[in-house]
């Protein structure tokens, strides 16, 4: 087998010797060329060129943003080349969030992940999964419009300003957008589906590929139980934006065994083949934790059997092996230039790092649940 290893040297947990470890570990199974990304979008270009030149597989060492770029490059080349089999992708976690890699059941550590990938390649038992398509952009696990995407952009901004990437950074970004940016008075979003009346009055929408939304201290935030990347798109939307509502929603996703989130202010759609989100004004938009700017409409479609992945076999319920949910006190979300979030176990900045504001009862509940030191403007 001949393949390409794409390395994002700036990803959060990628070390200088990681590429060498991967090529040595896979020697005898895969003849790997190695390329390092040099700019945004480069992973897409490299993956497309590898597929077009006949490479059997593309492996990515990096975070969710680099993986998303590579997936889009592979699918673009696949459409142009007319090869019968879906492209083959391997992921070695190198970012801070690594949502897609974790959702596939891969270990977080580089050496352990490489060992798992080697075992799958040796056995030749690749998995085929579906992908989401947002406009012309494929996504592996999630996309969002509204406050969800605003928070991703806020994390980008904070990191560009020198803030240390941490598990609390994502929660602080939520508070900053809640107090300083998000319009909590006038809902702009409307859901449209074939054969159904439109549903408006929505402040934010999250669309997942029957997959985790993100991870909290190594535990998946599951909009619906039993993720499998093969059951269509799931939508979660809010009709009101309050910190108490957000905290309750995140808590429900931590313990998703009882079913999808429900409530007066929550709208859930399960297993959709397609849907469209329209906005009354330009609104923030993200895919796989990468901020894509503002838009006024996005059409989403589920694409079954789009990608083969080098990943461990799923369980009897069709889901990857997830950790059992338990008590957790920190958020590890997506965000940043490569779609990564704070590393697990990092407590993040303390009280002195966050601007203070008067907190109401819902703020206090949010902060207690997610260990945020103070409210922020």
Specify the CATH class of the largest domain: Mainly Beta
- Low-confidence segments, given as residue ranges, are 315-319, 322-364, 366-377
State the separation between the terminal residues, measured CA to CA: 53 Å
Strand content: 25-35%
* Overall pLDDT score: 81
Silhouette:
globular
Q: Could you say which structural class the secondary elements and strand pairing correspond to? A: alpha+beta
Count of DSSP E strands?
Answer: 16
Write the layout of secondary structure elements.
Blueprint: E1 2-7, H1 18-25, E2 31-36, H2 42-52, E3 57-62, H3 64-81, E4 88-93, H4 99-103, H5 110-123, E5 127-134, E6 137-139, E7 142-146, H6 147-160, H7 167-180, E8 189-192, E9 199-202, E10 204-208, E11 214-216, E12 219-221, E13 233-238, H8 243-254, E14 266-272, E15 274-287, E16 290-309, H9 361-370
Describe it for me?
- There is one protein chain.
- The protein is α+β, with helices and mostly antiparallel strands.
- The protein has two domains: 2-138, Rossmann fold (3-Layer(aba) Sandwich), CATH 3.40.50.10330; 144-302 and 323-370, Sandwich (Tumour Suppressor Smad4), CATH 2.60.200.
- Helices cover 28% and strands 28% of the residues.
- It has helices at 18-25, 42-52, 64-81, 99-103, 110-123, 147-160, 167-180, 243-254, 361-370; strands at residues 2-7, 31-36, 57-62, 88-93, 127-134, 137-139, 142-146, 189-192, 199-202, 204-208, 214-216, 219-221, 233-238, 266-272, 274-287, 290-309.
- The strands form two sheets. Strands 1, 2, 3, 4, 5, 6, 7, 8, 9, 10, 13, 14, 15 and 16 form a 14-stranded mixed β-sheet that branches.
- Strand 1 (2-7), helix 1 and strand 2 (31-36) form a beta-alpha-beta unit.
- Helix 2 (42-52) packs parallel to helix 3 (64-81) and helix 8 (243-254) packs parallel to helix 9 (361-370).
- The longest helix has 18 residues, at 64-81.
- The chain is globular.
- The chain starts with a strand and ends in a 7-residue tail after the last helix.
- The relative contact order is 0.18.
- The model is unreliable at 315-319, 322-364 and 366-377 (pLDDT under 50).
